[in-house]
Amino acid sequence: MAGVVFSIEPEDCNVGKIPDSFLKICSQCGRDNESHSLIFMYSDKAFCSATCFMRQKRKNDLKEFGKAIEGLMKKKKLI
What we know:
Elements: E1 4-7, H1 21-24, E2 38-42, E3 45-47, H2 50-75
Domain FLZ-type: 19-55
Organism: Aristolochia fimbriata (White veined hardy Dutchman's pipe vine)
Protein name: FLZ-type domain-containing protein
């Protein structure tokens, strides 16, 4: 699943603020996204930086990898 990067400029919003509450706070570190002109999105979550974006992506990838390994082990009756 690929992430999408886009920019929100104040003139794009009616009141000059990010309209949706889920975009206001970084899902990884909790920092305020309203001061950033670039917001990173991944899996319906907003991130303040590429670092936070990649941390979440890495967590999700590791979780999916673990589930895949567990499924293979069950298939081979190793667990």
